[in-house]
Specification:
The chain is α+β, with helices and mostly antiparallel strands. The protein has 3 domains: 45 residues, no CATH class; 158 residues, no CATH class; 34 residues, no CATH class. 28% of the residues lie in helices and 20% in strands.
Amino acid sequence: MPCRSLVLREPILCEANITSAVREGTTYALRVIIKWMNEAHLIQITRRRQIGGRTFERVVEHLVAEMSKRTAKPQIAAERLSGRLADRVVDAPAGVTLDCRTCGACCTFYTCVAVEETDCVPRSHYWKIGERGSLPAPIARRQLRRDPVTNTCLGLEGEIGSSVRCGIYSRRPAACRDFEAGSDQCHAARRAFELEPPLTAEQLAEALGRLAARESEERRREAINPVGLTRIIGKREWAVEVIDKEASGDIEARPEAA
């Protein structure tokens, strides 16, 4: 019986395939017999040690949709908030004592957590994400792996809101190290799992006012310091040059020497 080798570029995802795509982080081969042109063929399907860009996007959409079914509707979109204490715009709830060992909300609520090349996260705990349209795809980025049903980081052990621990704590990525307990994103995750009460109308109004003021200031700074893309002569790369109008008095992008 003739044998053909087939590499899946972007598998068609149904519910079961999404779960499989999330769970599988190692290379495996599957041999199946199919009928092709009225003849039986032995097909070997090989999954590579990375996820294609389109597949990953659909996995994220699936996880976010499932998470929204199990959590309270956010009062403020988490992406507008910060994971740093210095950037807080929401007042901390009174009488709440934070202990990461009895929480775990952030490890389940947030789907995309970057893993840098300098991080020492175990290979079994992160995905390699390939760029679209290339086979085999070069590594474009890395993300902590999630449970396909609960969206929980694979490093989290225990029960959310009761007793948890990080199984890769000493090797967790910089994104986790930089995330501060008590930050706005921390409390947003806790409110999503109803580990603390929602914001009152007054608290929400005050927080939105501070947030609007901060975002306005950020836009003002971006207008003062525009980013110019300058083509380097004779090369394919692009140089990024930030020019301070207040300091230089002009906004002309100057190319680097070729």
